[in-house]
Amino acid sequence: MSDSQAMQIFLNSPVTQDMIHHLVSVTLQILPCENSKTITETLPSPPNSPNNTPIIRSKPLPSLMTFITKLVRYTNVYTGTLMSTIVYMNRLKEKLPKDAKGLPCTRHRIFLACLIIASKNLNDSSPKNKHWAKYTDGLFKREDVNLMERQLLMLLDWDVSIDNNQLIYLWKRFLDPIKNDLKKQSRIRNSLSKGMIAGSTQTIVIPNNSIPSSNSSSSLHSRNSSVSSSIYSSNSLIHSRSSSVSSLESLNEEFVKPIKNTNTNINMNKTLNSLNANTPLSNYLKSVAMKEERELNDLIKQYCGY
């Protein structure tokens, strides 16, 4: 199965916890950051405060897992948009200095900026930055969101392009299981179709020595799963019957009528008499009719619940 088929299925699938775990893992690998469960925020001092001392307030810093999960829930972001942030995060990691180190909230800023750029680049409409600030539950203000977006674009040299080959490579761990499932489904369909074709028709050839001897008569009994047909004439003998109603007596009702005494009619009467007699062909046709009648009764019991 092709990568494009697997990618289409992946893009139409909902966001899963496994995807969020993978995003957290990728974000943590961008750069080391200080460990802290709070971040400090500097507020301007009131006009009448002594010495104009600024007010420093600390805010709890949610885990990266909680932060990303809330963003996904608040924005209802598409799977493709969310997972495309991996492209920008890997591109940023290559451009950062080796000794770069961030603040406790740097990873949160990087992921949010990557998600904003992916949303604006891949979708016709995207939330405004003031809405993104609300989605952070007060962790960042609109000014912070504007700043982190500009900083990321500058670090990426405004290169926000994404091609399918990049996505196929970065989404490999998600696309491979989908391709394996598609292959399994294809094998199952092929095996079922072959089984149906093999079981739909059966041809039974009656040996010549089982047919009453005649200078100008021959017979062939051909039968499929639903219709059996045989025609009787001066040159060939065919017995026609459907899968639901089969009876040898119908031959007598149809053929035993007042007819002219011609050579053809005499031959036909001899053939019918041979069927009524205890001949191998007569016994064979009777056994086939009884078998099909039993199969029909079993099907009626199965589907009608009798």
From TrEMBL:
Cyclin-like domain mapped to chain residues: 66-154
Quick check: keyword Endoplasmic reticulum in the entry?
no
Per its record, what are the GO molecular function terms?
cyclin-dependent protein serine/threonine kinase regulator activity; protein kinase binding
The record, for InterPro entries, names: Cyclin-like_dom, Cyclin-like_sf, Cyclin_N, Cyclin_PHO80-like, PHO85_cyclin_1/2/9
Instruction: Give any Gene Ontology cellular component.
Output: nucleus
The record, for SUPFAM superfamilies, names: Cyclin-like (SSF47954)
UniProt keywords (A-Z) are: Cyclin
Q: List the SMART domains.
A: CYCLIN
Q: Which GO terms describe its biological process?
A: regulation of cell cycle
What family does the entry list?
Belongs to the cyclin family.
**What is the protein's name according to its record?**
Pcl1 protein
Q: Which organism is it from?
A: Pichia kluyveri
